[in-house]
Amino acid sequence: MNALKLKKGVSRHSAYNLRDPNAEATEVHTLAVLVDNEAGVLARVIGLFSGRGYNIESLTVAEVDHLGHRSRITIVTTGTPAVIEQIKAQLGRIVPVHEVHDLTVEGASVERELALLKVAGTGEKRVEAMRLADIFRANVVDTTLESFIFEITGTGEKIDAFAELMRPLGLVEIARTGVAALSRGAA
């Protein structure tokens, strides 16, 4: 038996037992879930995660087939390989779920995120913000005499880097969409 005391009802491999030195390393996975576009489906999918203590790093949902009334949920989550397999199996058992794809293991994929950043500043800070926006290929989507709103798309790391550079220049607020992802290739 492990020397680490376990809470009553919490197994050794539970998401709540994160300090077990013998536990497997966690991995980040991007899951694409095709579901019926109807009331309550998103709540059921999210309930699966919250009810079992799984974390969601990013979540995006949108209708992708208007005629077929289907939506695509893209979820970025973390867990051990066993936990990821359990999540996929449990998602597949939810009735309105049609397909579950683990883009992380199925091959190369393209992941992007969109962010809006409000930056307030005048003078040299304003000039520097515009210079950096040009380098990062961020677009100005709104401007006043005292502020900009930049739109930037790319990987999460690119958006994080841009936001960190904007902080000392007057970053006021940021809104992010979460990850949208597709597998590469014809299929």
Would you summarize the structure shown here?
The chain has 187 residues and is α+β, with helices and mostly antiparallel strands. It has helices at 41-52, 81-92, 124-135, 156-166, and strands spanning 27-36, 56-65, 70-79, 97-102, 109-120, 139-143, 147-154, 171-176, 180-183.
How many β-strand stretches? 9
What is the number of domains?
Answer: 2
Summarize the biggest pleated sheet: 5 strands, antiparallel
Q: How much of the polypeptide forms β-strand, as a percent range?
A: 35-45%
Please give the share of residues in helix. 25-40%
Gross morphology: elongated
CATH topology of the largest domain: Alpha-Beta Plaits
- CATH top level label of the largest domain: Alpha Beta
**End-to-end C-alpha gap:** 47 Å
Helical stretch tally: 4
Class from secondary-structure proportions: alpha+beta
Rounded mean pLDDT score? 88
Order of helices and strands: EHEEHEEHEEHEE
CATH homology-level superfamily of the largest domain = ACT domain
CATH architecture of the largest domain: 2-Layer Sandwich
| Oligomeric state of the chains present here | single chain
Low-confidence stretches: 1-15
Rg to the nearest angstrom? 20 Å
Task: Give the SSE layout.
Blueprint: E1 27-36, H1 41-52, E2 56-65, E3 70-79, H2 81-92, E4 97-102, E5 109-120, H3 124-135, E6 139-143, E7 147-154, H4 156-166, E8 171-176, E9 180-183
Antiparallel strand pairs: 1-3, 1-4, 2-3, 5-7, 5-8, 5-9, 6-7
Task: Record keyword descriptors for this entry.
4 helices, Alpha-Beta Plaits, single chain, 9 strands, alpha+beta, four-stranded antiparallel sheet, 187 residues, five-stranded antiparallel sheet
